[in-house]
Amino acid sequence: MEATLVILVPEAEGLVRSFRDRYDPAAKSGMPAHITLLYPFKGPDEIDGLVLDTLRDRFSRFQPVKFSLTTINRFPGETLYLVPEPEDPLRELILAIWRCYSETPPYRGRYSTIIPHLPAAERSGLIGDQELAEIAREFEQAAEGRLPLQALAAEVTLMDSRSGRWAINTTFRLSQES
Fold this sequence. Notes:
30% of the residues lie in helices and 29% in strands. It has helices spanning 13-23, 25-28, 49-59, 88-100, 129-143; strands at 3-8, 34-38, 65-75, 79-85, 118-122, 149-153, 155-160, 167-173. A hairpin with a 3-residue loop joins β3 and β4.
């Protein structure tokens, strides 16, 4: 059982769904198109009223973020993804959560640089580097003329896998005040 904080991006579903359904285990487990803010977060059983109140307070300090999914990129040997621009407001959300919960670094602290991204395909034991390159070419063709995609991050979603599939636990609105 895990939990994660994400920005759901329904605007990208039409482009990424068929790729994610085939090449992303999280999609097969119910995770929609998203930009991860913090994974893993606390275990679902550790998320109580205090945690929810802290998250609600933290996110209320941020304005909604208009962004574009502009280009396709890859983490070498790992993930094919769409790049959100601007990245900085999304990175600031990630850092704000991490400052509150330093015991839960993004991706278990595996990476030194935080790069907001929307995954289209994840390398698994079934997909090698060469296959990922072929998937990238296929995705580039599918995306031709469809990028950039415009999106608005107006809320952060806490999802958990308590039921064995990813499901929405709670949503937190970003502040609407100017």
